[in-house]
Design goal:
Elements: E1 9-15, H1 22-25, H2 28-35, E2 39-45, E3 58-59, E4 69-70, H3 72-85, E5 94-103, H4 106-113, E6 117-121, H5 130-136, E7 139-142, H6 152-163, H7 174-177, H8 211-229, H9 231-239, H10 245-254
Parallel strand pairs: 1-2, 1-6, 5-6, 5-7
Antiparallel strand pairs: 3-4
Helix pairs in contact: 3-5, 4-6, 8-9, 8-10
The structure holds ligand 9WO.
Ligand 9WO binds near residues 100, 124 and 143.
């Protein structure tokens, strides 16, 4: 259910490949967010802002070297059009996706999901003319330590993560109970059948109907998994005061 008074978030995506976005925005949770108007995504095909006869959007790097660099001027023109539609939005983030940026995590997703959206600048080739970054970009985001062929997939990752946090897009408690809402990993899930043909059964506690025991079992699986796989997250949860005395007793019993 859409909450009518919420200001819609708007994302203006400047990209050489707008067609990469449509399929993703047309499915599932992201579609629901976009259909309800909670998240407005506008695509700005960069080539439309290339004004020369060849519609050039890139050129060779000064100083030499391999590859091509995205021209400043088409980007500047696209940014000016976006700005002209969003006048007075002071502090509007202009985001560039690069391995050198701040690592995307759920805390940053939540910050961005609080609104009012952003301008997403998707680089291609070997990069964009640094003068554009210096003049306009307020936030550089990395998904991790690997190189992609452009910023479009990172932009889609961010849009997906933000869209599912919009009120009414997921059924309420879902994203509050899950992984990372409390900084812990999520334990295992099971569904029918209770026993697979090879005899592998679902943990009996989940069929017991004892909601208290089920909640405790899930909490313990979450703590154990986090302690073993991501001890850094467990330390952060502890330091943020998100572990109860019962949590600590359970971990102590495991020797974790
Ligand atoms: C590529 C690169 C490689 C080594 C060290 C630094 C680097 N920066 C970039 C970069 O910003 N590249 C631009 C965007 C232009 C070429 C394609 N782009 C890109 C973005 N490749 N990989 C990413 C990316 C973005 C966010 N998280 C992981 C990778």
């Amino acid at each position: 259910m859409a909450q009518p008074n919420l200001p819609a978030m708007r994302f203006d995506v400047i990209t050489l490949f707008p067609e990469l976005f449509a399929p993703h925005l047309a499915h599932g949770i992201t579609r629901r967010a976009f259909e309800t108007g909670l998240v407005d995504v506008r695509l700005w095909p960069l080539r439309e802002h290339a004004l020369d006869a060849y519609r050039r959007v890139d050129d060779r790097p000064f100083g030499g070297g391999p590859g091509m660099v995205m021209l400043a001027e088409p980007l500047e023109r696209a940014l000016a059009v976006v700005r002209s539609e969003r006048v007075g939005e002071v502090g509007l983030p202009v985001i560039h996706f690069t391995p050198g940026g701040r690592r995307l995590d759920q805390a940053l997703v939540q910050d961005i999901a609080r609104g009012p959206g952003a301008v997403l600048l998707c680089g291609r080739y070997e990069g964009v003319d640094q003068r554009v970054v210096d003049r306009h970009v307020t936030l550089e985001i990395s998904l991790g330590d690997y190189v992609l062929s452009g910023g479009e997939l990172p932009a889609l990752v961010l849009l997906d993560a933000v869209a599912r946090l919009q009120p009414g897009v997921l059924h309420p408690p879902s994203h509050e109970q899950e992984s990372f809402a409390d900084g812990l990993l999520e334990g295992p899930s099971y569904t029918r059948p209770e026993v697979l043909p090879d005899g592998t059964a679902v943990p009996a506690v989940l069929l017991s109907g004892h909601h208290g025991e089920i909640a405790r079992w899930r909490r313990e699986r979450s703590l154990e998994l986090t302690a073993r796989r991501r001890p850094d997250l467990l330390v952060a949860a502890r330091e943020a005061g998100r572990l109860s005395d019962a949590d600590e007793r359970f971990l102590a019993r495991l020797g974790l």
